[in-house]
């Protein structure tokens, strides 16, 4: 069975995906906040299924996200059509937000239980329906699930789980070293790595305090590519540059005879952009665009990006560092849409 899994962008959402990563060898993952991201995630997964003509058994799983009635109707109707065309898609939503009650009343695949967090619902579901976890996994999974449950639905009376859950909540919310849009898979793997490492602290005396003390070290362990210790900022920058280089062909844009890199929602690009341009002399400029259309430009002497920013959107700055604001930019979740938008802008410059 192939898994398509949409989950929320918090501790509970990533806890659900930690569980399914223990089960499925072939899987697709997305994380979505409410609003536009949920519908776009559903459409994106359905497009993959259709475009790649995936006729194997599919579990389309949504966790820790409640759908609107319109979103539920869309997903239900689209999967019915696909199944009539020879696909085999099972839809399952596992959630605990009471605002989804109307949808749960209407659709049998919409499971709602406000007494448990989504991670615990997901854990119990796969234990009951699939007997899915290996015996050795129960020893560390169940305590971790209980800690996530205690903090997510605020069970202060479960003191040890609640206090440990508080540390987990803070740890996952502060994963900012890897961009969660451009490198969503790496960001997700980073969070799940931290959760799995955290599980070994639960049984220890004052485990919450020990974990809190060690989070910085655990992050550095994940980010360290060459086993040479450094500050977390430098390790993050090296990791980011390595990640960009690994997909630079996908990120490449062109302006006249100049070649550049385009990123989306990276933020704070001075260090990584400079490091990338110095390591890749065939590239002339670096642009990062935020969700609101604010753009930062960097160069290393081969292109005046101050002039480029002015031409693109009446921006400006220095020859090697500048910025602008694209007033007609609309927030999207797919990088390809951003690249198409910016490349069209560059192509239209005289």
Descriptors for this entry?
350 residues, alpha/beta, inorganic pyrophosphatase (n-terminal core), Diaminopimelate Epimerase, Chain A, domain 1, 2 domains, six-stranded mixed sheet, five-stranded parallel sheet, globular
How would you sum up the global shape?
A: globular
| CATH fold assignment of the largest domain | inorganic pyrophosphatase (n-terminal core)
First-to-last CA distance: 52 Å
Q: Please report which band the strand proportion falls in: under 5%, 5-15%, 15-25%, 25-35%, 35-45% or over 45%.
A: 15-25%
Number of domains: 2
Query: How can the largest sheet be summarized?
Result: 6 strands, mixed
Number of strands: 11
Kindly report the average pLDDT value.
95
**Rg of Cα set:** 22 Å
Unreliable spans: none
Sheet/helix structural class: alpha/beta
Helix segment count?
Answer: 14
Would you mind describing this structure in some detail?
The protein has 350 residues and is α/β, with parallel strands linked by helices. The chain has 2 domains: 2-223, inorganic pyrophosphatase (n-terminal core); 249-347, Diaminopimelate Epimerase, Chain A, domain 1 (Roll), CATH 3.10.310. 51% of the residues lie in helices and 17% in strands. Helix 9 packs across helix 10 (232-246). The relative contact order is 0.08.
């Amino acid at each position: 069975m192939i898994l398509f899994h949409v989950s929320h962008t918090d501790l509970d959402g990533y806890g659900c995906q930690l569980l399914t990563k223990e089960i499925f060898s072939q899987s697709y993952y997305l994380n979505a906040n409410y609003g536009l991201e949920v519908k776009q995630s559903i459409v994106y997964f359905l497009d993959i299924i259709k475009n790649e003509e995936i006729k194997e058994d599919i579990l389309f799983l949504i966790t820790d996200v409640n759908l609107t009635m319109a979103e539920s109707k869309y997903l239900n109707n689209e999967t019915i059509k696909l199944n009539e065309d020879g696909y085999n898609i099972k839809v399952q939503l596992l959630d605990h937000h009471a605002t989804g009650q109307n949808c749960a009343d209407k659709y049998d695949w919409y499971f709602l239980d406000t007494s448990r967090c989504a991670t615990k619902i997901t854990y119990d579901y796969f234990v009951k329906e699939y007997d899915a976890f290996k015996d050795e996994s129960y020893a560390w999974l169940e305590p971790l699930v209980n800690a996530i449950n205690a903090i997510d639905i605020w069970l202060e009376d479960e003191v040890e789980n609640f206090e440990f859950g508080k540390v987990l909540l803070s740890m996952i919310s502060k994963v900012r070293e890897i961009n969660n849009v451009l490198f969503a898979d790496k960001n997700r793997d980073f969070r799940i790595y931290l959760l799995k490492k955290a599980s070994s602290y639960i049984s220890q005396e004052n485990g919450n305090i020990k974990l809190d003390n060690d989070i910085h070290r655990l992050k550095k362990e994940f980010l360290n590519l060459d086993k040479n210790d450094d500050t977390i900022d430098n390790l993050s920058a090296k990791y980011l540059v390595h990640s960009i280089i690994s997909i630079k062909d996908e990120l490449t844009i062109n302006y006249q005879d100049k070649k550049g890199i385009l990123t989306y929602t990276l933020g704070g690009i001075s260090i990584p952009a400079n490091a990338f341009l110095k390591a890749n002399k065939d590239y002339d400029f670096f642009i990062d665009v935020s969700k609101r259309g604010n753009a930062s430009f960097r160069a290393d002497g081969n292109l005046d990006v101050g002039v480029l920013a002015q031409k693109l959107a009446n921006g400006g700055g220095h020859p090697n560092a500048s910025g602008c604001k694209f007033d007609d930019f609309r927030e999207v979740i797919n990088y390809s849409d951003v690249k198409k938008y910016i490349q069209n802008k560059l192509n239209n410059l005289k």
